[in-house]
Records
---
Amino acid sequence: MVCIAVAAAAGLQGCYHDGQVTRGADTIPLCVDRVLQSGTFRNAPSSRRLLKYLADHSLAGDSEQLKEYTIGVDAFGKAPDYDPRLDSTVRIQIGRLRQKLAEYYRDEGKDDAFLVDLPKGRFTLTCEARASAELPLAVHEEPAEAALALPPLPSPNRWRVAALGLAGISLLLVLLVLYNSVRPRSAVGGAPGMTDFASPDLAELWKPFLNPARPLLVAVGNPMFLQFENKALYRDLSVEKPEDLLKSPRFSAVSKALGSQESRPVHYYAAVGDVSAAFVLGQRLGPHQPRMSVVRSSQLQWQQLADANVLFLGPPRFFGDKLASLPVALEITEGTDGFQVVHPLPGEAAFFKFRDPSGFFAEDGEACVLITHAPGPVGNTDVMTFASNSTFGRMGAIDGFTDVAFARMLVGKMRATSGHIPQYFQVLLKVKYKGGVPTETSYLLHRELRRRN
């Protein structure tokens, strides 16, 4: 296997680029650049950043000295007190980069003569010739070790393929029927209409996020759990930072009861309502926004907020720090048990409980959902959050916000004398749900947000 740093220094490895074989130190940048400019990586800013970072260090010859901590601080902007034992960002992004490279070479790069790879256990990129690649020029150096490849699968029985295809179609139809049977109904009456962004009201609500020139990220809240050696999981609903959880007396009691086993923070899970809401967003916005992708809220970086439009789904505390740092003065904020209106109007309530009943196990009840549309950190992107302590509330709010009839009602209430809705705003909704299924979504109030000077 030829290491990038060695190949560049020795001038041995070649790269097939635009019909020519390139040799020497220019080889690797061309191969990496080819990958970075691909559609596979274009909408994956974290993988792009990591690949460029590792390529630069591999070419410089110091990649063997890289540590997980160094990558976290330098490539992903982690604070100096970042602890890789408590924060798995780098490990997750390394795994995602390998997946993206495999995806690229299965599709767009299937005809590339050389493969860029990141072997497990190392931070040094490699560049290998495909075993079957025929280069226009003879290569006289020692042959590199062939890349590992799965043997071609035998031709499957066509009846089996037909049966699997029929089963897949049947499953899809069943899922669609089930989804349509539990779709919530909005307070304006009737089943939600088809999402038609030719509707002027929907277009006005969603216009910034349907701009195909800018990527759209759907950040799904993924709470932190502590996983023990015996696979037991512990979750404290009031804590999201590993260092705070490790100091918790309740965690100490649980750890002691389990024999003080080793534990580590994991972000593997998402609430069922957020998964459903992300599906609805993909279904309804996807045909109008080709550059749409899903990320975990725990992995979202400030640079992504500056480069892409973002939709947040989750409890307020999951992204409250980022929201408070955006260049607008918020008019509705998160309190201890609910949403606080900073400047209530005469006769208007100043406080709205997160949910009623407040018990975490109630699947029947109602919840408030705060939708905040604000500019990104440098003002050239848009951020919209759907914040609620109820996963069912967030699901109902997404359905209402993408429904023609509900949008018509909402825009009518928000429309100013100018004839337009505010560029940035906060909207407070109430969602009723039964058996975990949203049944009614209604408007409570809204506020215009103004940019800070």
Note: DSSP finds 15 helices and 18 strands in the chain.
---
Amino acid sequence: MDPERSDLPRRIRDLEDRIVEATLERQRARNGGAENRFGQVGRRRSREDAHYNLLNLAEALECESSALFGAYVHWLRSVLEARGVSIEALAEHLRLLGDTIAREIPEATESLLPACIDEAERVLSSPSPSEEQTPYVTPGEGLAGRYLSAALEGDRGAAVSLVVGAVEDGLSVRDAYLTVLQPVQREVGRLWERAEISVAAEHCATAITHLVLSSLYPYIASSHDRRGTVVITSAAGELHEVGGRMVADFFDMAGWDAYFLGASTPVDSVMDMARARKADVLGVSASTIGSLGSVRLVAEALEQQNGDRPILLVGGRVFDLVPDLWKSVDADAYAPDADAAVERCEQILSAGDSP
């Protein structure tokens, strides 16, 4: 990566505390802000939110994508509106954040920073995201709906029995993943974003999905002809791992030796595993903008590796937000889902295009 390209994001991160405090002080001076209105809790949360907003902005600048920051603001607006937070206050905060950066780093005005702030204002002045959202699954309707209801109720036994029973009755494991587990997990995430379920309920439903995945694994049929070796992990700092686990299982079903490392595995350990298993593909999943830096570290470690190195495949929700975002982290390929991940890697290997 061009050192000049990453200089502004680095300087923003170096000045993180100073920029956040100056922004909050200016917001307090204008209207009191959450710090005055909600006491100590408001002070803590406003600082946490400001740090999070700033780091997401820095990552968008790192990726040279104002659209990425717009996608983050779109998500943030949806979450805050569902919780009754003023969008006008958010718009003011982001404007002040951009202005404070420009005061601390004057040359930032010649960068993509103004475009990022303009994109945020465009998103916040558009119709509410809540009007665009439709459920992925309706509770109680069909197998997926019944599974969703059981998962939200925390009924592990019923949830496992529903999906495993369907597989024993003829539903393929692949279709169980694609038509039940995947849309239900997306619906659980949507319900949390809309504040219709708590964090605890979301965690409980996700834990149940992990249990179902484990229960289905004995039903996975894989080819005896080994097509390659893949190591799948979530980016360091990334806590979401259901998607990566599903991708590993799809490679398994396609006849690959698949190793799944779970959530937030340190980069050095990922590289050790990839070398030990002589991986043809190293897959990294990321769901948040904040995880992109960890994916970039994996790419840098691969570049420093002597001899043949595995294909770096990336996927996850964050890479679905902006076309070609995967290129900004120096990955070799991107896949929007498990089927596409297997297909893309087999195409690359069969064509002899390994890096």
Note: Strands lie at 229-234, 257-260, 281-285, 311-315, 333-334.
---
Amino acid sequence: MSDESTVTTEEQVPPAPGRHKQSKGSFFRELPFLVLIAFVLALLIKAFLIQAFYIPSGSMQQTLELRDRVLVNKLVYHFRDIHRGEIVVFNGLDNFAPETTIAPPSNGVQRVLRSVSSAIGVGAPGEKDFIKRVIGIPGDRVACCTDGHVTVQPPGAAKPVVLHEPYLYEDDHQVFCQAGAGAQNCPPGAPGVLVQPGRLWVMGDHRGFSADSRAHIDDANHGTVPINKVIGRAFVIVWPVNRATVLSVPDTFTSGFRAPAAAAVAAAPYLLGLAGAFPVNAVRRRAVRRFGRRAAAA
């Protein structure tokens, strides 16, 4: 008999009795731990990096439609200032009145499910969360209207910049000014609203249906929003799939104003991500090599 006929390869060795059952049992024992780790990671990502938000109203139509879901970058404003034209989510508690009313859960199961979905950022929003477009940043003077357009005069600028906003839906051309009680009392040529340090002037893209800074102009802060209440920047629509798109800054905010001075700071998240990719990739390659050696030795 030749040597070749007496050799038994590893593939020909039948599996040990119970080995398959042990493997399956080991997986199910580890499953709760894997679920817990996934849940903790989701909480960390929501708390510090990215959170999903549900659009509950039509105040940002047609840029954002009712029931769209967007992802919000919660890290970017730790590295740079907020820019005009960006869409931000902010906590409007004590500043804005709720635009929608969320029905309370009717039973214990719904309360648990809502708490879990809210914790990981996939549930319905709270009534305190708002999403608007930034029109004025600290030092800007915002006014309406010049030939039907909103104007923004940055600090030190000789004249205001006229905003041409093709993304608007049902623009009501509402006149607003800082002095007086409401738009109807704004005198001709009123100077508009001066955005104070640490605050933002925000407006919805559906101007006729948005209870934005204009609706709160008679408040102590003239409708402006505290920067420290901003949760993050909405940067992409992820649902429904047929509406998935990146939410970029319109050209009117990039051509009429000076470019932000801190370009390097703005790129910091991407540079940090690139730097972090190398050690992660090194760990991955080491794990692949180790797994390959074990498989070859088995």
Note: Confidence is low (pLDDT under 50) at residues 1-11, 261-268.
